[in-house]
Hints:
Elements: H1 7-28, E1 32-33, E2 41-43, E3 50-59, E4 62-71, E5 78-86, E6 114-115, H2 125-131, H3 143-162, H4 164-174, E7 178-180
Parallel strand pairs: 5-7
Antiparallel strand pairs: 1-3, 2-3, 3-4, 4-5, 5-6
Amino acid sequence: MFYKVSDKELLSIRNKIVKDVVIPVLERSNFRRSPYKTSWYGEYDRNIKGYSYTLCRLSHDHLEFVEIIIVKGDRYIKVFLNIFKIEPPVKSLEELRNLEDIRFGIPPNSSTNMRLRNDDYNGPPIFYVNFMPEHKIRRYFTKRGFEKEIKKLSDLIEKDMYNINSSVKRWHELHTPNKTDWEGNIIA
């Protein structure tokens, strides 16, 4: 009776949004595919079925990471931002090629990870959990309703990626960058 879309198709549609909308917009803001040899960029697990894309850019002496995660059985496109003060300073992302980035994703470095449209709001959570738009395909009952939800998600995430510098500014209001070496080891 109601219009139904398989988890596999939902995963494919969200991945298409990331590849066709999110990544090109981030590239306009100088984000590039992470040069680290251990960074994910595409399908990451044939059993769980999901996609992960890690992009980064240099901004003065900071290394800014954007990680995008899409998982089968979920309706979200999860976008995470994390920023590190790199010592010694990096002149080009190419200098990081063939290094490992695993330490950037584990504590204490992961404690400053900010999920866009989730961790960056001010005020009581009850307000934004119930009323603010998310990077999610919401409920639909018809094919037309489904197509509308896809368009809303695509438009919202595109707008947010065009405003990534606002998210970076908000990140700096909430966190202080960890000082690390090029592979994410904390420097005291």
